Fold this protein.
Amino acid sequence: MDQRAERPPSSYGSMKSDEESVIEFTENDELALPAITSQAITGVKLNCVDYPETIFTQTTQQTKPPGANVFDTRYFDDLEEVEEQDEPEEMDDYPVPDSPEPPPPVEPDGPEMEEELSQPGRLHPEMCMPYIFKTMQIVLAELSHQQLKSFVSSTISNSREVADVLDVVDGLIESKGHEEAVGKAIEILNHMKLEKQAKDLLRKCFKSRFRSKLRREMQRMFKVIREGVPQAGKQEYLSEIYVEAELSTQGHGGIDPWHEYRPYPGTPPLPLPPIYSLIMVNNLFRQKNRAGQPVRVATTTGLPGSGKTVLSRQFMLDWANEKANMDFQFVIPMSFRLLRRLRDKENTSFSDILLRDLRISNLKTFDVLMEPDCKFLIIMDGFDEWVQPIDWNDSRQVTSINDMAHLDAVMVNLVRGTLLPHARIWILGRRAALSQLPPKLVELETEIQGWSTECTDQFLRQKFRRNVELRDQVLPHYKRCPSLVQFCRLPIVSWIVYTLMDTRFQYLHYGKFAPKLSEFAGNYMIFEINNYLQSHLRQQSNQIEWRDEDQAFLKKLGKFALKLQEKNVWLFSEEDIKEAGLDVKMVTTYCGLCTEVSKEMRQGRKKYCFVHLIVQEYMAVLWVFLTFWLEGKNLLNHTHHLSLWPKRPQPPKIFGSKNEDEVKPILPLLESAVAKYLSSPPGRYDMMMRHFCGITHPKHISMLTGRFCRNRTPIMKGQEDVAKMLEQKILSHPDRAAVLRVCISELTEVEY
């Protein structure tokens, strides 16, 4: 019996068994197969041409695509021509030992398309371990045996005997990793005065070294998130508390249309972005522009406190940890807060910016960024901190990263694409600032929509993960205030909820009443002003001091908010801001309390609004309260515009004692507020009434004291009298009882 070599099953294989594959035909059959020659078994047979599947058959002719050529791959001495059958149905009389030709494989659109659509992406070949291994092997092969021995003695594997270069490279990569192994090898070569080999290795592995340094610097900078004033021994890892917000390509300003007592006045309900427009932040540069090409310049905006900076840092941290976007060879962070310090210099270059901002001093050149196949991303965060306007039309042209020019010109050419045209650009900032960018330069606009209630719950669970008992108290407690739940769509408000309740629940009676909304609105205002002082005036987080200009600005803004409340409007223009004596930039961009509305919500000229009606109503109440507290004027009662208490000569303070004249009643202001509330339509002043009661709480007054006044100020008393007055109003106005009861809970000081 003839022997034949074993073969692996065909990938597309015939469904026939081995017995069917060696059928012997009679001499009457029209098609005779050549005899199978015996071959010795050699392990792997690359050209399997003697098997029935490779025979040129009628079946193959029938299944080939139209116009395709079929090649005869048989190998035997006498190749007989196979005549085409006139009656193919006769083939059913006997089994056909041939399987049809496999269909052509479906090729992907190319590696670039695969990288664009998949995560975490594909590394560049020069950054992969095989390339680095081979390069190090070639460079170290130039060393003599004695030099190689000295090289090994400088590594951690000095106990190993030097066998050959392969062992040395393998040991170094095994101990350091393929990226760090290059840096270690360069360091040792320089120490051995082998500068030629060190430069050669750096030149060939420059991309890997650059990437390694970027990753290490990002992990150092963004691994720990800094929340509020730094405290010794307390730090949070960003990956442990990060909750991704919704990112939409069809945003409508990010403003939450919901209000507990009334809709936004004078407008229909604000549209929310459709679900199909939501994308993951790591897939931002997987999107296509209108021409079907990958997006080059993308922007992300959102309300102040919506988490733009945290979003970008998590993006960079995911890249540094090789969790996403590995197809980007480099991700370069450029903070406008740091760049602003270079704006006073006459000239600079993009290379100088990298050396100064990224702290990569031992990489002298970045010409690799100008290579056409270099795919990298530049993240430019905090565009609203770029104070002065930029000339986008007449800036000097810059084409090289080494060209010296004004920083504005470098930024303009970077966005235009005349400088580093292959770079992807991601710019983050507030809407009023990003609206200065020429629309033709931006290919994709995205907007952070804020957190859902589920996101807020997830964040609080992660923050209270070490105290499960407290977590179970906080989660249901903050939901007792519906307005606070919606206010928490801003991630910074969710952080304020965590910070305050982590402290408040230490008091014995806290939690009896619903959370005080005024407390969170006041802390939001303080946070945004403190953030402005840190970012624009460079005050340290633990040494923030409000200036007279800051106090005056907030008073004017509160007066402006009261005017809007009286007119029952929430949108305003630049002309309205100027009429109120306010700086447009400060209101719309820097203070963090207002925002520019989207194009879909305005007609023609730009419009602005407070980040939420809750903030507008709080600022209006703040202005009325400060006027009453510091000047003794009741703005809600036009017959009492003069001082409510005459100023008399104050006796000198003895041993720090308080004078009786410093204690002032709060009842007159609250009586005027209640009268205005009860005489207005339902919903018009409901939230303001709550703020009036909340802002007169002793703890809230204490919070304002250190920021609006530093010396002797009147102590506001009489909260008990106000509570009694509200209880009487509940009996006489049962239709307003629900709101008045909430006001009592805002005013009470039983809890802490």
Summary: The CA atoms of residues 113 and 729 lie 69 Å apart. The longest strand covers residues 330-335.
